Amino acid sequence: MRRLLKLALLASLAVAGRTLLVRKLRGVDDGPISTTGRGGRSAAMATLAIRRAGDRTWTKARQRLADDEGRRRLQAELERRDAADVVGALGNMKGAMMKLGQMASYLDEGMPEPMREALAGLRSDAPAMSGDLALSEIEAALGRPLHEMFETLDAVPMASASIGQVHRGVTLDGREVAVKVQYPGIADAISADLDNSETLAMLLGIVFPGLDPKALVEELRARITEELDYTKEAANVSLFADYYRGHPEIWVPDVIKELSSTRVLTTEFVRGQRFETIYEASQADRDRVAEVLYRFVFRSLNRQFVFNGDPHPGNYLLADDGRVAFVDFGLVKHFNQAEIDQFARLIRAMLERSAADFRQTAEEVDVLRAGAPFSDQEIYDWFSAYYELILEDRAITVTSEYSGRLLRKTFDARTNEILKYSNVPPTFALIQRINLGLFSLMGRLEATANWRAISEELWMWTNAGPSTPMGQAEAAWLASGVSTAGGSSGDHPAPIEPSES
Q1: Considering the entire predicted model, what is its pTM?
Q2: Residue 269 falls inside a structural domain
Q3: Is residue 188 among the annotated active site residues?
Q4: How far apart are CA 310 and CA 138, in angstroms?
Q5: Are 313 and 410 within one domain?
Q6: Structural domain harbouring 69
Q7: Does residue 192 share a domain with residue 308?
Q8: Based on the domain organization, do 279 and 209 belong to the same domain?
Q9: Which of 82, 310, 328, 491 is flagged as catalytic?
């Protein structure tokens, strides 16, 4: 009887939830789904959780009475409702919940098709604040009237996302700029979201059925608040911009320091197209862009000792001059030489193909618990998936199947016993975003290159000569001394204490 009452209660909640959803989709406004206030956001997400749980329970009950075709139809309908409900809630929010949706939106493999399509809309276009409010926030944050700083400043934003939105402007001296302004009240909204980690985990469980979302939730909790201080991001932008100045393929737009503050960040304007347009380009163009991304990530890590921890399409633009522009540096990890050496030890042990040596190294750098009940070869084979692109000195095509396999390997402990004995120490936590972000994009591009040869150009212990035309152009750039990368070795240009910003 208790089970029947529970089922009836959940079913009634599901019906009410579906009625609300249909009214929303038809444009009938019953009020906002969420607010920036702690109580409103928590209540909205709790309602969403109950509604989705009730819908799933009711659907499973109906599937037990249906034939195979009916079960498939009911499952497809459930997935569409999941997508509409979750994305509808996230799309009306700012802060951590929206950030979660955007992070998930570029992990294309391992989620139902309706969810993948629905989340794509969160990548660049969250609901914007009004133009008057945005302009007044910019003026207040910079402490001067707008006419004393800008010749023009568009009230309609170019893009809006989880923490702020971007407006196009022209300075008094004629420079085209992009002005990112933070949403008012966003700090309180993020705090409310991060205090509700169970709901974050629930949402990830809907987006990725069968995956353990705890690791991503913890990373979100630990990192997202760092993005609220735009002075930190400005320092990161300047570090990358100085290093890559004059690079033939990479452009980091400069910060306009006098027009930036803790809540406003002004940079050079990028004329170009969204990154997603590259998916429709020729394979040669997709290969070139993938090589640019690969060189940017691993040159920055191995030579500059920094990692931009938010690699997803919304942070890349295809500039009209052919370069790839990198435009978001709110989440950057700085490393020291000892930490970089840990990464190098694992790579070298893997390339030497000694299972015993790799296991010993993995335990010493704390990515594997000592005494795991598996053979050395089983340990080596399991970790080798993360190094598959560089194990052999030959051209390899990155596929969506490969990036999807890495995603499941990273999260799904229920079907992966070795994962239960692996560890992600603080030094390695943000590096996992390479597997989740960069390789997901490269798989979508179906990019082909000799990634081992390119890596040997970038590793400090190999320092090999150019292996591609882009490598030759990069070598000429290094030799020119235009940037802080210095001479041909491109070694770490200046000491940086280990910190996160």
Answers
A1: 0.74
A2: no
A3: no
A4: 25
A5: yes
A6: 2-123+188-213
A7: no
A8: no
A9: 310
The answer to whether position 183 is within a domain reads: no
Three-class DSSP category at 332 = strand
Give residue 32's pLDDT band: very low, low, confident or very high (50, 70, 90).
Answer: very low
Domains contained in the chain, number: 2
Residue 429 lies in a domain: yes
Asked whether residue 203 falls in the same domain as residue 341, the answer is no
449 pLDDT more than 70: yes
Residue 235: Cβ within 10 Å count = 14
Cα–Cα dist 314/167, whole Å: 15
Identify whether residues 287 and 193 lie together within a single domain.
Answer: no
> In whole angstroms, what is the distance from residue 96 CA to residue 77 CA?
28
**Average pLDDT for 322-350:** 92
Cα separations (Å) of 154 from 141, 169, 201, 381, 392? Answer: 17, 6, 38, 54, 51
Closest CA to 447 of 490, 477, 480, 403: 403
Nearest to 302 by CA among 449, 426, 464: 464
Please report, to the nearest 10 degrees, the dihedral formed by the alpha carbons of residues 242, 143, 182, 324 taken in order: -30
178 Cβ neighbours under 8 A, 6+ residues apart: 158, 166, 167, 168, 169, 253, 266, 267, 268, 269, 270, 327
Residue type (1 letter), 204: L
